[in-house]
Write a structure and sequence with these properties.
The complex is a heterodimer of chains A (339) and B (79). Chain A has 339 residues and is an alpha+beta fold. Helix content of chain A is 29%, strand content 24%. Chain A is built from nine helices and 15 strands. In chain A, β4, α4 and β5 form a beta-alpha-beta unit. Classes of the chains: A alpha+beta (339), B mainly alpha (79).
């Protein structure tokens, strides 16, 4: 049984954080310098009482309101997030209830970060291929802003919040469309390089973990906050992503000429520029979609797909290669023929 | 690649004066050698290595001399 992406929506929180606001707060760079470094002019931050599930549900409601998803069709709901509503319960059953999905549908959360969208497509495809489901509602939602110390320019300039909702449905195997081959990777040596050190059970929050320190680049954070070693994450990406693309093309028996778009996790402009120089497809086939939303973690690839589709650049039969990579470290890539 | 070519490529990446890249120059002495500059240095070295960088390569470079030593060890420098 083939699995296709039948419909996709995104949702962004209302609050816009501009480079000007960050420049005034951080006092390190001008708004234009932030743009030159990151390729981003603004990003969206969730409200204090707005969770990742709210963003994902808002995206899903756009699908139901427009008639692209009948809630009663859903027999599995997946939710990818690194900022869940609670430690427990998991968020997916809460989403099931709030969206009015059948009580007979399966559900679970998974914590996967930047490679999460591709990983979720893999899970959805597996559920469909094994006849466990016919219509998977796959949601992503991220509110990294809640982990960011406002005085840490190394992450405050990059990340934004968002949600997405994707309908993955079983389809006649004769169709050329669908989710294709996958390649995965994991390297836990990089766990320390993109991390919120305190707050879970390995290191619960305490007075000690709340103590702020300023690093040699002038970024201030505590162990309760998001930390990123940008240098090592960058090195990981330029080493692993080109190898992953090569391996996937070989596995899918495709050449770079077969690909209409190579959609990378939208980390930041410098990262994508450097990767584009190392990848076997022309730069014009590698979309950049972060200038007004920032790096939205597991939502970057669905946002890119949604915008390509909105501009009419994705057509039935468009051949795509998706690559998610980052926190973990973990990475995942797949081929996809647009339905 | 010669030592001067390496110096010029890294200076270009940092948007710094090549003359500022003396042996003991580093993040503390070259203002352009900030966290973004460090990425640029990694990128220059990666592009000039036959097999590219591996995750085991490159601890943070504290000086231009350390970059030169790495480049010699990896066969990037020809002089």
């Amino acid at each position: 049984m083939q699995a296709i992406i039948e419909a996709l929506e995104i949702h962004l929180p209302e609050r816009i954080v501009t480079n000007q606001e960050l420049a005034e707060r951080l006092g390190k760079w001008t708004a234009e310098e932030i743009f030159r470094k990151t390729g981003m002019r603004e990003r969206r931050f969730a409200a204090q009482d707005e969770c990742s599930s709210d963003l994902a549900i808002a995206a899903a409601r756009k699908l139901t309101a427009s008639g692209r998803l009948n809630p009663s069709d859903v027999d599995y709901v997946l939710f990818c997030t690194q900022s869940p509503d609670y430690f427990l319960p998991q968020t997916a059953p809460i989403i099931q209830d709030r969206l009015g999905l059948p009580r007979t549908c399966g559900s679970f959360d998974f914590n996967h970060g930047c490679a999460g969208f591709v990983a979720g497509l893999s899970i959805a495809k597996g559920l469909i291929a094994s006849s466990q489901a016919r219509c998977v509602l796959f949601l992503t939602g991220e509110t990294y802003s809640k982990f960011i110390n406002p005085k840490d320019g190394s992450v405050a300039t990059l990340f934004g919040d968002a949600g997405s909702a994707t309908v993955v449905r079983a389809c006649d195997t004769n169709t050329p469309a669908g989710i294709g081959e996958f390649v995965f990777g994991s390297d836990g040596r990089g766990a320390k390089n993109l991390i919120v050190p305190a707050g879970a059970l390995r290191k619960p929050r305490s007075e000690a973990t709340a103590i702020e320190a300023t690093d040699s680049d002038g970024n201030t954070r505590s162990e309760n906050d998001l930390y990123m070693n940008g240098r090592d994450v960058f090195r990981f990406a330029i080493v692993e992503v080109p190898k992953t693309v090569k391996a996937l093309l070989e596995k899918a028996r495709q050449t770079p000429d077969d690909i209409d778009y190579l959609i990378l996790h939208q980390a930041n402009r410098y990262m994508l520029d450097q990767l584009a120089q190392r990848l076997p497809v022309p730069k014009e086939k590698i979309p950049y979609e972060f200038e007004d939303v920032g790096n939205t973690v597991s939502c970057t690839i669905p946002i890119t797909l949604h915008r390509l589709q909105g501009r009419g650049e994705l057509r039935s039969g468009s051949r795509l290669l998706l690559v998610g990579f980052g926190v973990g470290y973990s990475w995942a890539a797949c081929t996809l023929t647009w339905a | 690649m010669t030592l001067e070519e390496l110096r010029n490529r890294i200076a270009e990446e940092l948007n710094a004066d090549p003359a500022s890249l003396t042996a003991d120059a580093g993040p503390g002495t070259v203002p352009e050698w900030d966290s973004m500059g460090a990425l640029g240095i990694i990128s220059v070295l990666d592009r000039n290595m036959k097999e590219g960088l591996s995750l085991e390569d490159t601890e943070p470079f504290k000086s231009f001399a350390a970059i030169v030593a790495f480049a010699r060890q990896k066969g990037i420098l020809t002089d």
